[in-house]
Specification:
Blueprint: H1 2-14, H2 17-46, H3 49-53, H4 56-82, H5 85-90, H6 92-122
Length: 128
């Protein structure tokens, strides 16, 4: 998923006609990957939801998990709606600014999940 987001940034940064022709497919693939990944992740976490609700710290982590995930996905949908292909081609810097923010938040989210959330919820060792 992170590689796909980086590929989008790369295509827009290059900005050639050929690179921009690849952009719709990259963006569609990214959106599908995000939806698929989030669905699997939510199902996995929800299998432990009843158990987590009994522990105030885990319940707090679970709320954060869902709230931030929904907010980020909503922001991705806004980006996709507000930045159609034509607008990206005309204002690459504007799109890059918007999408880099999403990408930075995605990377921070993955770090938080690996270092805090999954170790606390599933007892997995934290990744570095």
């Amino acid at each position: 998923m992170l590689a796909q987001a980086d590929a989008i940034l790369g295509a827009v940064t290059v900005g050639t006609a050929a690179a921009l022709r690849e952009l719709p497919g990259l963006r569609l693939g990214f959106s599908r990957l995000v939806n698929s990944h989030c669905s699997v992740e939510i199902r996995m976490v929800n299998t432990r939801a009843a158990e987590m609700d009994k522990d105030p710290e885990k319940a707090k982590l679970l709320r954060r998990f869902h709230d931030e995930l929904l907010m980020w996905r909503g922001d991705l949908m806004d980006c996709n709606a507000n930045w159609p292909q034509r607008r990206v081609a005309v204002d690459r810097a504007g799109f890059l600014s918007t999408f880099r923010g999403l990408n930075d938040r995605l990377k921070a989210r993955v770090r938080w999940e690996e270092q805090v959330f999954y170790p606390a919820i599933f007892g997995l060792p934290a990744r570095r």
